[in-house]
Design a protein that fits this description.
320 residues, alpha+beta, Apoptosis, Tumor Necrosis Factor Receptor Associated Protein 2, Chain A, Potassium Channel Kv1.1, Chain A, five-stranded antiparallel beta sheet, 15 strands, elongated
Length: 320
């Protein structure tokens, strides 16, 4: 499973009024944010009062390095009473760390009669948490020498892709390993297995050639366009070549920027690519105020825009 690199979460933390008026330190329940298999990050919050001021802190416990950007807001839904602070990006190590503001608000301001901060017997604190994994190494490590030798051994290839009146050669054993579709085809001795060839009508010669090169772990990404990569991904998706699909997703993520985010968001939405969509949503969230000015926004289908807005405006996770 492909690991998620960016995560955005919203938390609404209710601090009992008795704790606030008693100026008693208070800690939220702990919440787990998953970045993939065995890659969970634990997050919790603290309310820390002093004689004259109150502070808020976010704590993160992580098994790997992450970059964090955190906002905290009190009573955000009433803008007049809203108090908001924003952190700069900080890299957390694997130790339990904290980020916050020891001088967020004065005690006098918080408890002043009519201030509006304490309502319904509690103080409502919203946290906006953006976390990004800081990888230690690249997932795609380069050319595999064994696969390269097989790719060059044309005389050993026993299967042909016939497309646009041209031929692309491969090995049945390799196709069986990377694709359950081809594995079933060869095991059940379909017509294509008997003839040692398959006719491809829905993809061009260029797309099939690039796809086969990637199956053999050969260089394909230099000069690759988004449009071509999308078609290669669709080829892999048709034949359930999940490992190769992840390579394409990795390539998309490595080129994710404000100029490409809407193009990749549409792609992720149309083909249901959740990991890439998470990456796009995290970037859009971090640029909420001006994301409508990014390249290609004007051509985005309305269904995609609605999906993004719903995702970014989802209800907070409530912490009592």
């Amino acid at each position: 499973m492909l690991a998620i690199r960016q995560v955005y979460r919203q938390f609404r933390w209710h601090i009992p009024e008795a704790k606030v008026r008693g100026m008693t330190p208070y800690e939220s329940p702990r919440s787990v944010i998953s970045f993939g298999v065995n890659k969970d990050v634990e997050v919790f919050f603290q309310y820390v009062p002093t004689e004259s001021e109150i502070g808020f802190f976010c704590h993160v416990k992580t098994p790997f390095n992450i970059q964090a950007s955190i906002d905290v807001s009190v009573n955000s839904e009433i803008s007049y009473f809203s108090t908001r602070q924003n952190s700069s990006n900080v890299v957390y190590s694997s130790e339990v760390s904290h980020l916050g503001w020891s001088h967020f608000m004065t005690k006098t301001k918080l408890l002043k009669s009519g201030s509006g901060y304490l309502r319904n017997g509690r103080l409502e604190v919203d946290w906006f948490v953006f976390l990004r994994c800081v990888p230690n190494e690249k997932r795609f490590v380069g050319v595999n020498p064994i696969l390269t030798m097989l790719f060059q051994a044309k005389d050993t290839m026993d299967f042909v892709f016939f497309v646009d009146e041209q031929e692309v050669f491969s090995h049945k054993c390799i196709l069986s390993v990377v694709s359950p579709v081809f594995n079933a085809m060869f095991k059940q001795n379909f017509k294509e297995a008997k003839e040692g060839r398959i006719c491809i009508k829905d993809f061009s010669f260029e797309i099939v050639q690039i796809a086969l090169r990637l199956i053999y772990n050969q260089p394909v990404f230099e000069g690759l366009t988004f449009e071509t990569a999308e078609l290669v991904y669709k080829f892999f998706d048709k034949y359930y070549m999940t490992e190769q699909m992840e390579f394409i997703i990795d390539w998309f993520v490595s080129r994710l920027s404000v100029d490409s985010v809407w193009k990749l968001t549409v792609f992720s939405f149309n083909l249901n690519v959740p990991y890439l969509m998470d990456e796009c949503l995290a970037l859009l969230c971090n640029h909420w105020d001006n994301m409508a000015t990014f390249k290609d926004f004007d051509g985005i289908p309305m269904e995609t825009v609605k999906f993004v807005v719903r995702k970014l405006c989802t209800r907070f996770q409530i912490l009592e």
